[in-house]
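Supplementary Methods, section 5.1.

A reviewer requested that the exact input to the structure prediction be made available. We therefore reproduce it here, unchanged from the version used in the analyses.
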Amino acid sequence: MEPWLCTACGNEYTASPEPPAFCPICRDERQFLGPQGQHWTTMEKLLWQRYAVDWRELEPGLIGISVDPRFAITQRALFVTRPDGGVLFDCTPLIDDATAAKVREQGGLRAIVVSHPHFYGAMVAWGERLGGVPVYVHEGDREWVGRPSPLVKFWSGETLELAPGITAIHLAGHFDGATVLHWADGAGGKGALFVADIITMVEDMSWVTFLRSGPNGIPLPAREVYRMVGALEPFAYDRLYGSHWPRVMKTDAKANVRRSAERYLKWIDAEPLAR
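The structure derived from this sequence is encoded token-by-token as follows.
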């Protein structure tokens, strides 16, 4: 038996003769099923249907990974390569032999860290296929893991160093355990921040916003915005990578996040950020 994959969000669930009755992540107010309702598939079926892994170099030392053609919510993973083992931020619902070989050619993986439940994808399958790589999930999101495994490591606190210059940061907001990743060597040494949609890049990609749910239009309260901006303050970053292929803020990201927070707080009639 293979683990089940929810076709709406792409997350994996423990193998069983019959699929789960429902996906709790998609039943939650932050996600949705759409008019097609609840359906399930497996990684084997995706490969048989000729889905493949889309692998793109985004800048030196950084590779983006997604699924082609479009599947689920088109999650994008980000792979920081290192000769002594890199770090993967978020997971796709699919990993094939060619992708596993490419990861090994780039030095392999020392750790997988996931941002939040919408971007778990097939995180345990990724860890298993690449030789038992640990998968770090913040303890605030423990309840959402659909396929328990010894590879899943629940971490606590506000930061977790995964490799020199690569740090997971607990932001909360979108989910209790929502996590972003700081890469100090990114953007030519100016620093890059990987945020999925914990911080949501909008159509004008020099701005961001702060949402409990993007698709369902649920805002975050001021207290979460204060916390998120404060948690990022110690980190230098000039570039911001969002949730999908086009979502890249190439320069001035830290200043843009702060001014976006100021604008957001103004329009919800909240106090401005502390200076």
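The chain has a mean pLDDT of 97. These observations are discussed further in the main text.
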